Prior knowledge:
The protein has a single domain (20-184), classed as Roll (Pnp Oxidase, Chain A), CATH 2.30.110. The strands form three sheets. Strands 2-1-5-8-9-4-3 form a seven-stranded antiparallel sheet. Strands 6-7 form a two-stranded antiparallel sheet. The chain has a two-stranded antiparallel ribbon with strand order 10-11. The chain is 16% helix and 34% strand. It is an alpha+beta fold.
Amino acid sequence: MKRFRKEDFPVSEVRRFLEPGPIVLVSSAWQGQTNIMTMGWHMVLGFTPSLVGCYIWDENHSFEMVRRSKQCVINIPTSDLINEAIGIGNCSGRTLDKFQEFGLTPVLGEKVEAPLIKECYANFECRLAEGSMISKWGLFIWEVVKAHVAISPRYPETFHYRGDGVFMISGRSINLSRKFTPEML
Length: 185
């Protein structure tokens, strides 16, 4: 078993080790406008119904769009879109059309008015399930009402933010399903 030498670490930086999942692109629509934001702060909260919690800063242009429309699409990009994701995160939808600026294709949703991003591996159409924590914490609880996922690969190469401009690309998969009881899979 590996042993690690440890030192004190700033508690404000622990997110570097706890980021729950891949970077996603959240697309939204409100009163004829669309936007895309890059997000790393999200978490699965339930399976049936499928619930996802997302933190959105109240200064982000998307905040008011999703708060008012009560819907969005969580799009999962693969590593070939990392430069687009960084660019999207570095500019504001108040001043430009991010779909056009970054060469992404909006696709009409089946259950929500927010557009899907065609170039992403997966798209999850979401409706607001719980909004009581939005004002205080910026936490939106979404119910995924429709999911669109590419047929292959089964485990796409996604990217995860580690802070300070450093990303981790998802690595090899290890199938240990035989060690789980069926109800825990």
